[in-house]
Amino acid sequence: LVMQLVKELLEMFVSVVGLKGVGVAGQKNGLNSAVLMNGSGSKTRVVVTGAAGKTGRLILQKLMTNDSYAVTGVVRSQDSAMKLVKELNLQQDAIVAADILDKQALNSVLSKGIDTLVIATSAVPKIDYFSLVKVFVSKIFGKTARPSFTFKENQMPREVDYIGQKQQIEVAKEQGCKHVVQLGSMGGTDPNNFLNTIGNGNILLWKRKAEQFLMDSGVLYTIVHAGGLQDSPGGEREVLLNVDDRILSENKNRAISRADVAEVCVQAVMNPDVYGNRVFDVASRPKGEGKPTTDYVKLIVDLKENCNYNLDVDKTIAQLE
Fold first, then answer.
1. How far lies 153's CA from each of 76, 124, 159, 160, 321, in Å?
2. Which of 23, 27, 48, 145 is the most exposed place for a label (fewest CB within 10 A)?
3. Residues 64-106: tens digit of each pLDDT
4. Is the torsion defined by CA of 272, 278, 279, 282 positive or negative?
5. How far apart are the C-alpha atoms of 101 and 163, rounded to whole Å?
6. Catalytically active residues, by annotation
């Protein structure tokens, strides 16, 4: 029972924030739109960081099915790189290991050439197993209690979701990157969101601060706030876009397939003319409600607003150091 509780709680956190994990096979790919080539007419060079995570892996796989792209995945360790190369049957140089907190390592990777950067990195919590005793006892007596989470040293949201993402953006810009697609999470407008309490990490606030840095960087950007992530096939649901967490407050449809989130990110890479300088939330209707989304250009064009970064929460974020 204890192990089942651990599994359920970790899956809850991962589903909302979109953290690293084992990749999911059998997802549908669908690449339908035009490609922006680099100036030389050669393949567009795309780097996907966080490629060992569930969603990052799907983004990587989808891009690799299109011959118009030269795609490199970045993972944190050499062991992860070797594992991903083996599982996806890739060339050795398709996946590289680099710590996003190591600016020299990032420079080494991105200096090989980059047109588009997709950021799918995120801090990863670990559970405090002693806190499960309280959860276990509470469950026996029909009550509810939440476990405690911590983050590894130097891997807090401040380091990974702000400093690490900030460094990725800085180095990519220095290396001539034209477009950055940043994968984040819904809930960032609420400083009291439960996810911010996990490990005292304020994860959504640090993510939002990194988003603000990207918007001020001068590089073309696309920022995608995903709803609760599900390990289900893509291409089977109607995708919904909105802004400022309205989906959380107004809509019962708060979840979305990882494969559909990956598709939105890929479409942003493929269509920078319409996805450029856009910031939005994304979720989907349950399977069987509405029509599965196929036209991702129309989807973003029909959204007339961008997320607002002049809210009360942004005053709090401005004070974060």
1. 15, 11, 10, 11, 17
2. 145
3. 999 999 999 999 999 999 999 999 999 999 999 999 999 999 9
4. negative
5. 7
6. 185
